[in-house]
Amino acid sequence: MQTLYNLDDELSVFARGAPQLSPAQQTVASELASGLAAAEVNVLRVAPGMGRTTILHSVHASTGGAFIVARQFLNLLSRRAPNAIEETFLDLLTETLHQHQTIFVDDLHLLMQVVDHYNYQRANLINAVMTTLLDEAAAQNKKFIFAVSGENEPAAVSQRAIVWEMEEFEPEDYAAIAAHYLGSAAARLDMAKVYRFAPALTAYQIKNACLWLGLRDDAPSTDSLIDYLRSRNISSNVDLEEVATVAWSDLKGVDDVIEELEAKIALPFENDQLSSELQLKPKRGVLLAGPPGTGKTTIGRALAHRLKGKFFLIDGTMNAGNSDFYCKVDRVFAAARRNAPSVIFIDDADVIFEAGNHGLYRYLLTMLDGLESASSERVCVMMTSMNAAALPPALLRSGRVELWLNTRLPDESARATILRDKLQSLPPPVGHADISLLARESKGLSGADLKSIVEEGKLLYAHSKVKGNSIAEPEYYFLRAIQACRDNRRSYGKTNPTSGEAVRYGF
């Protein structure tokens, strides 16, 4: 068979630019090298972007042998019929087997992604090919090492192989990769802090962040590296520009709720030193329960802006009737685990469950239980509910929802504060309404009601002014708005919406 290209040239190029292995990479490389003495077939499984080829080249450099990559296979396939995939692969490996004692095969998962497709017409032929090859190799006392991303090798290979998998990166792995691309400047970076911010980065993500930092900053800092990661690799499914800006200071009458969230959610996210020293982690399950209009979703908005890319939303915009609903939810949980510490915010959970989504209920039970694992323990699931009794009891049992917070209707002092904030920017006379009177007369109304009352009162005042009517005391317009709000409530209480009526909820 004609030589397709000079493999020695490729390996020499690799050797000149190859990074040093990180500790996790070195460990699995050593294990793989020892496995060559113990078994005829070895498989290296490494997640995408974590240095699979780098590890394989490192082992090859110490043991020698042939090294086959996808490029060789594709070059050969280009001269044949497009559907001759298995035959081409068989010929390539057979020729290599005749010439070498040890054969390294990288990128095997790329081939499997084609031949394992449900619409592929020659299902399982690859297993016949691999069985033939491995039998021939065993008869000649020769060895194969296959490298794949994920569990993506043929069954005929996995049945015979010793499988080696790399452990997840630790801070020292981040530091080793950064040192290769930043040199001595990497010593200025606190990679333990970077790891606490983003513990699931790939080698490619760390590399790109370091290259970007090296180009733009003569004195790279930890904070600038984290800012880059936040903007490029850590992504929420919420567009913060589309979410109303809310800060804790904007929330009135829920100081105890804010204090709990500060201590048990925000602190483990923001205080790296204490989080590392005391091994702090956010609460796994949090329930915000309370009447409509008491600020549950507003708390979610504030939390979204506080956590930026660490916030993931599940709400009514994910239509549970769609066939891909559970795929969307699963992607949210997967992204949250990758970006931990993070918060998954499920808005109006009781409405979702009242719609008969028993599948979501069972899925959430499984997900919440799965968050106990070491790799997921820094993911917090926060749910809001107007009626906690509508939530499945098993979801609320001890261990799943660890923190139950109640939002409530504002008392007179809180109502006065809310009204003052809304009215203080208005011109006289409407902005000089008697706050104390309005706070007393609005007893039993929510923060959302008060916001609506201020808007209604402004409209009534403006209408009178445009019509040329005599202007009454400013309290008059807001008292009328309060009465209209109470009338609307009574009218709503008399109605009984059908179960099929559309409901819009969420941010």
Chain-wise SSE layout:
Layout: H1 7-17, H2 23-38, E1 41-45, H3 52-63, E2 66-68, H4 70-77, H5 85-99, E3 102-105, H6 108-115, H7 125-139, E4 143-148, H8 155-158, E5 162-165, H9 171-182, H10 191-197, H11 203-216, H12 222-232, H13 255-270, H14 272-278, E6 285-289, H15 296-307, E7 311-314, H16 325-338, E8 342-346, H17 349-354, H18 358-370, E9 379-385, H19 393-396, E10 403-406, H20 412-423, H21 435-441, H22 447-467, H23 474-494
Parallel strand pairs: 1-4, 1-5, 2-3, 3-4, 6-9, 6-10, 7-8, 8-9
**What is the β-strand count?**
10
Outline, from the CA principal axes?
Answer: elongated
Main beta sheet: strand number and arrangement? Answer: 5 strands, parallel
What is the second-level CATH architecture of the largest domain?
Answer: 3-Layer(aba) Sandwich
Name the CATH superfamily classification of the largest domain: P-loop containing nucleotide triphosphate hydrolases
Low-confidence blocks of residues: 1-16, 498-507
Strands of the widest sheet, in order across it, are 2-3-4-1-5
CATH level 1 class label of the largest domain: Alpha Beta
- The average pLDDT score comes to 82
Amount of beta strand: 5-15%
| Backbone CA Rg | 31 Å
Structure in words:
The model is unreliable at 1-16 and 498-507 (pLDDT under 50). This protein has helices at 7-17, 23-38, 52-63, 70-77, 85-99, 108-115, 125-139, 155-158, 171-182, 191-197, 203-216, 222-232, 255-270, 272-278, 296-307, 325-338, 349-354, 358-370, 393-396, 412-423, 435-441, 447-467, 474-494, and strands at residues 41-45, 66-68, 102-105, 143-148, 162-165, 285-289, 311-314, 342-346, 379-385, 403-406. It is of the alpha/beta class. The chain has 4 domains: 7-165, P-loop containing nucleotide triphosphate hydrolases (Rossmann fold, 3-Layer(aba) Sandwich), CATH 3.40.50.300; 171-232; 240-406, P-loop containing nucleotide triphosphate hydrolases (Rossmann fold, 3-Layer(aba) Sandwich), CATH 3.40.50.300; 412-494, Helicase, Ruva Protein, domain 3, CATH 1.10.8. Helix 16 (325-338) links the parallel strand 7 and strand 8. A 5-stranded parallel sheet has the order 2-3-4-1-5, with helices on both faces.
